[in-house]
């Protein structure tokens, strides 16, 4: 029987996940499909029951359901537990629902796809202290990166997040700005510079040193103002397209056991977003 997978969220029509997964399904000659499902917050419990009853084999979870979904799952992996957020659900052969979180690991894989181990052993700066910062910092730590410094508009939130990441410390934005040349890897995880705003940066990039890898998890626009300014100072860039593709690839692998082509997909999504932009 044809298998089906889904992504649930609100809103959902903008999601590029269906196109990405359908292409991987086709490339790997699988008898399956992947559909977007619009689920409002108040309907989440019913939606989970329906997905299960209608034979969905697995689904992705996006905003605003990543934390709320946990109460409806039978088990979640340690990383998702630490994040208190799930973005991937597998329906196990016995029917139980298993949640995991591939966002942070997706970032690490996208970084390594482009830059290998270049950033290992150096200082890392993470800008932001929300869910994305938590996932990325934790995954970087687990993958052997660090020491990690966190900075955020609201310093208390960075200080709080620090307590969850071994050896991490928090500094105020002004202090981070002064120390920018000390980092091998700088990751921008806030929403500043996204979509309609397009302009604006979370901190002054003046002191970014040549050769620093500067990442922004935003992929629309493909090159945020922060990345443009970093480029002017000789930084090596990474935008959010790769993280998006790799979080999806990790989910695809959990469901099908197949590791899909991520480089080709990153190129295609970049084109879809109107870019001939290359990261380096
Ligand atoms: P996500 O899950 O995408 O990380 P989030 O948990 O809402 O989203 O976190 C948003 C992050 O972007 C926070 O670090 C937030 O800073 P505050 O903790 O000070 O709110 C940051 N952010 C959002 N808008 C910002 C802005 N205009 N300037 C600076 N930081 C901003």
Can you describe what's shown?
By secondary structure, this protein is α/β, with parallel strands linked by helices. It has two domains: 3-101, Rossmann fold (3-Layer(aba) Sandwich), CATH 3.40.50; 104-240, Rossmann fold (3-Layer(aba) Sandwich). 36% of the residues lie in helices and 18% in strands. The protein has a six-stranded mixed beta sheet. The chain has a six-stranded parallel beta sheet with strand order 9-8-7-10-11-12, sandwiched between helices. Helix 1 (17-27) crosses helix 9, helix 4 packs across helix 5 (131-142) and helix 9 (241-256) packs across helix 10. The radius of gyration is 19 Å and the shape is globular. The mean pLDDT is 95. Bound molecules: 2'-monophosphoadenosine-5'-diphosphate (ATR).
Record the SSE blueprint.
Blueprint (H helix, E strand, L loop, with lengths): L2 E7 L7 H11 L4 E7 L5 H10 L4 E4 L13 E2 L1 H6 L4 E4 L5 E4 L2 H13 L8 E4 L3 H12 L5 E4 L3 H8 L6 E3 L1 H7 L5 E4 L24 E4 L8 H8 L3 E3 L2 H16 L5 H11 L8
Parallel strand pairs: 1-2, 1-3, 4-6, 7-8, 7-10, 8-9, 10-11, 11-12
Antiparallel strand pairs: 3-5, 5-6
Helix pairs in contact: 1-9, 4-5, 4-9, 9-10
The structure holds 2'-monophosphoadenosine-5'-diphosphate.
2'-monophosphoadenosine-5'-diphosphate binds next to helix 5.
Instruction: Assign the structural class, choosing from mainly alpha, mainly beta, alpha/beta, alpha+beta, or little secondary structure.
Output: alpha/beta
The radius of gyration computed from the alpha-carbon positions, rounded to a whole number of angstroms, is 19 Å
Helix content class: 25-40%
Number of strands: 12
């Amino acid at each position: 029987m044809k298998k089906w997978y889904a992504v649930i969220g609100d809103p959902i029509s903008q999601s590029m996940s269906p196109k990405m997964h359908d292409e991987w399904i086709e490339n790997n000659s699988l008898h399956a499909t992947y559909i977007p499902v619009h689920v409002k917050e108040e309907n989440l419990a019913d939606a989970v029951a329906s997905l299960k009853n209608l034979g969905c084999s697995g689904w992705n979870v996006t905003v605003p359901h990543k934390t709320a979904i946990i109460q409806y799952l039978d088990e979640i992996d340690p990383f998702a537990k630490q994040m208190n957020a799930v973005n991937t659900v597998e329906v196990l052969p016995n029917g139980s629902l298993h949640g995991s979180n591939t966002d942070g690991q997706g970032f690490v894989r996208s970084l390594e796809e482009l830059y290998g181990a270049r950033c290992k052993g150096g200082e890392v700066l993470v800008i932001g202290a929300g869910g994305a910062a938590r996932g990325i910092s934790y995954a970087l730590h687990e993958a052997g990166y660090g020491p990690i410094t966190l900075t955020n508009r609201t310093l208390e939130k960075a200080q709080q997040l620090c307590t969850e990441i071994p050896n991490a410390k928090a500094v105020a934005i002004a202090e981070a700005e002064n120390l920018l040349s000390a980092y091998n890897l700088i990751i921008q995880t806030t929403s500043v510079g996204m979509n309609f705003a397009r302009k604006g940066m979370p901190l002054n990039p003046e002191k970014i040193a040549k050769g620093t890898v500067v990442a922004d998890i935003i992929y629309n626009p493909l090159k945020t103002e922060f990345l443009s300014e970093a480029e002017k100072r000789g930084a090596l860039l990474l935008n959010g397209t790769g993280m998006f593709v790799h979080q999806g690839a990790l989910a695809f692998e959990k469901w099908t056991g197949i590791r899909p082509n991520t480089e080709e997909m990153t190129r295609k999504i970049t084109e879809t977003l109107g870019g001939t932009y290359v990261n380096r």
